[in-house]
User: Fold this.
Amino acid sequence: MIVYAINLFILSIVIFIVGMVKPGWIMFWMDKPSRMGVMWLAVLLFMGAAVLFGEGERQKKLAQSAQTEISSGQKSQDAAVLPRSAEKTHVQEK
Assistant:
């Protein structure tokens, strides 16, 4: 997911630069494209890439912590991860 985010960052920068030079190349379906539209397209792609990168980092961190717990033999005691029904049985077992 992080690789896709980096590719989307690069794409948004390329779209921005090309669109500022020749807006007609990016928005070829419009009669008179403006640079403002190209800028908004690039900004939206950039924000999407930032969210994708953040989610990829979060998933990577979760996978590493799960791998660490598995390798050390510890059980997760995190109540936020357990569903409500499992949370009640988990508390009753103690």
Q: What stands out?
A: Residues 2-93 form one domain.
